[in-house]
Design a protein that fits this description.
Blueprint: H1 3-31, E1 40-45, H2 52-62, E2 65-70, H3 74-83, E3 91-95, H4 96-104, E4 110-111, E5 141-152, E6 176-178, H5 182-192, H6 202-215, E7 219-222, H7 227-233, E8 238-242, H8 243-252, E9 257-259, E10 266-275, H9 281-291, H10 294-304, E11 307-308, H11 319-322, H12 331-334, E12 338-339, H13 347-359
Parallel strand pairs: 1-2, 1-3, 6-7, 6-8, 10-12
Antiparallel strand pairs: 3-10, 4-10, 5-8, 5-9, 5-10, 5-11
Helix pairs in contact: 5-6, 5-13, 6-13, 7-8
Length: 360
């Protein structure tokens, strides 16, 4: 081979190596970016929180497959999201206070949602926007609202029930079901004392601890998932539960009564968020937009029986739904609403109070 040909061959070889290097970098970069061609959306939320019929309808209309994974608690969700560093999932539906927690972290695990890609955002009732956990709804879009209420059997409970404080009445000994949830139950004691359910003053929390000691003889069951079952079976006669659970109880026993606590109901606003490294962000926004359609949102609400935050859904609501006190809560109750907030390091004291209360 001549020197001239060898030189040309060497130049070509170097050129090919450069091309391969850039190609490898390009492929590497593309692996970290959204694969817009993949017709998939990875959903992470509570079990049955998006009805199967709605999921199947979305898949049929868009050709996008929904991979549904579920968690039991907001804290479990956060731990898993931290473990994958904000990747793997495309849409997460979680509670308000945990969004506040995520927003305070050094490494933000969620990304801004492009509202231009979610035109049905306009259907959200403005009353539920710009809340404490995400002032401008930069990272979150409301999905549903849950409210805690008192449900009791008037055949067994002869006392007038008006609020949280009434659960301490001695006549209710060994008859109450409470949510197996520290913030909910400790919040009840704080409410009885006239304090915030997000109290951080150690002295006030110790007073709440003393109140719980007095409450314990009335508690028969702790149940976060199915507290209504003990009311239906007759094992308990009064309890605190979420609206969807209260509705299930009334369907089985129409004699049961619902009371909105006069001190104000505890509400939890669940929201859509998109993880910072979501592999299919465009599909995530399509999914969110689909669930915010008025008719679809009404179908969801009728199925899961949480409070609708969607104004476009109201025209589809049945009289049965509008008359259901468990899931259609009057607007005036929202003015007294109590929302959980992050209490930071004081969480340790809450945990200690809860542990001692359960062991009494």
């Amino acid at each position: 081979m001549s020197k001239k040909l060898l030189k040309i061959f060497s130049i070509m070889l170097v050129f090919m190596m450069i091309l391969l290097t850039f190609s490898g970098c390009s492929n590497k970069n593309s692996s970290n970016s959204e694969d817009s061609s993949e017709k998939v959306v990875n959903l992470f939320t509570w079990a049955n929180y998006v009805p199967d019929d709605v999921v199947k309808q979305f898949e049929k209309e868009t050709g996008i497959k929904v991979n549904y994974s579920n968690f039991s608690t907001n804290e479990e969700m956060l731990a898993k999201l931290q473990a994958v560093k904000g990747s793997q999932y495309d849409v997460i539906i979680c509670a308000d206070y945990i969004i506040q927690v995520m927003g305070k972290q050094k490494e933000v695990l969620i990304q801004p949602i492009n509202k231009a890609n979610v035109p049905n955002y306009k259907n959200i009732d403005s009353s539920y926007l710009n809340q404490y956990y995400d002032k401008d709804n930069k990272y979150s879009i409301p999905y549903t609202l849950g409210g805690q209420m008192i449900v009791y059997n008037p055949d067994k409970v002869k006392k007038d029930i008006n609020g949280i404080k009434d659960l301490w009445d001695p006549s209710l000994k060994d008859s109450a079901v409470l949510l197996d949830d520290p913030r909910s139950v400790i919040g009840m004691a704080l409410t009885k004392l006239g304090y915030s359910i997000n109290e951080t003053d150690p002295a006030k929390l110790n007073k709440a601890k003393a109140e719980l000691k007095d409450l314990k003889p009335n508690v028969k069951v702790f149940d976060a998932d199915t507290p209504h079952n003990s009311l239906i079976s007759g094992d308990t006669s009064i309890g605190i539960m979420w609206g969807s659970q209260a509705s299930a109880a009334l369907k089985e026993n129409p004699k049961l009564k619902i009371v909105y606590p006069e001190e104000g109901m505890q509400f939890e606003e669940d929201n859509f968020v998109i993880p910072v490294k979501a592999p299919h962000k465009a599909n995530a926004e399509k999914f969110i937009n689909y669930l915010l359609d008025g008719k679809i949102n009404n179908d969801i609400t009728n199925n899961i029986e949480y409070i609708s935050v969607n104004t476009a859904a109201k025209k589809y609501m049945s009289k049965e739904y509008l008359n259901n006190k468990a899931v259609y809560v009057p607007q005036e109750e929202f003015r007294k609403a109590k929302h959980l907030e992050d209490v930071g390091d004081v969480t340790k004291q809450y945990d200690l109070i809860w542990s001692e209360f359960k062991q009494q």
